[in-house]
Input
Amino acid sequence: MPAASTTTAAAVRAELAGALDASRAAREEAERELHRSVALRSRAAEALERTARRPGLDESERARLRAEYAAADRVVAERRTAVEKAQEFERAASVVAGAFEAEATSASPLAAALLQLVGSKRGTTARRGALTSGRTAPAPRVRSPRPRTA
Output
């Protein structure tokens, strides 16, 4: 019994470490995307500012530049929200991993319940994998790789 719980605890530690690494990578990617979108927005703003002082500029051109800036500003807001969500997810993963490490060393009912939950989830994912083995791979995501939340 103790050997089985030790291997299960090691498996939970490995999964939590994987979740931490994945959440860190997702946050870093979201931050890179935010920096790119801020740079694009600043280029759109510079183009708009350059046309403000130009005499005889067609108003439709100014309207197009304003629309480009507004679209870039919306993208920055979306990316900023994605960064905040990724940071929140990373903090949550860190808290769960820290709590498990603190509780796993003691004979805590919380650690036992988490080990039991992970053990029961492994059985369902193994069965689910057998059902979906004949399906094709999902299409790659075009948008941001931020994790989905419940």
